[in-house]
């Protein structure tokens, strides 16, 4: 949806949540990105403990990184490309990959492509080895009714085991489908709407949202969603997990 005036935007930034909409995107070209641009939706500068960003690649565009202490999950929004780590893998729309700390990787696009990334510093757990890489496709992940509700289907992309300190899931709601309650928890979220539309309650505000909107939810931000329109609504979201809020607990 294009605003009627360049001074207008649906984006909203608050201390405990943010809605980032396409008309307010700023394209950047960080080091290591060739024939590609990046939009940072969420970062520590707004109070988050992770980053969520989108890379837009021209045909032949690429990014080369060494993760150091960080871990990353990439999800292909559109297009095709190749992922090079210790092995080479083909990527297409719906492909996703998780890479643990110290991984050196390259993503190179075969055609114009967009890839969504979630990145954070890995939190080691005593006696537990860091996780291994995952390269897969959303079509291989079973859709499960969330708390028994067939109108809210959940795909869990990453294992729930203790070596993983972050999770990324995909929710798909039938028209009129909702979250079962207003949630309030210490985990934070980064969310990207893949298709459809609906209304998100964030704290005490209510926001119409639709495809290509991004949302940040800080710890303890009240949150609830209802899908609207005539097609299902689908979004992918990040959460931190498997680490207590107080170190050593």
Automatic annotation (TrEMBL):
It comes from Turneriella parva (strain ATCC BAA-1111 / DSM 21527 / NCTC 11395 / H) (Leptospira parva). This is Cupin 2 conserved barrel domain protein. One of its GO terms (molecular function) is ureidoglycine aminohydrolase activity. InterPro entries: RmlC-like_jellyroll, RmlC_Cupin_sf, UGHY, UGlyAH_cupin_C. It comes from the Bacteria. CDD domains: cupin_UGlyAH_C.
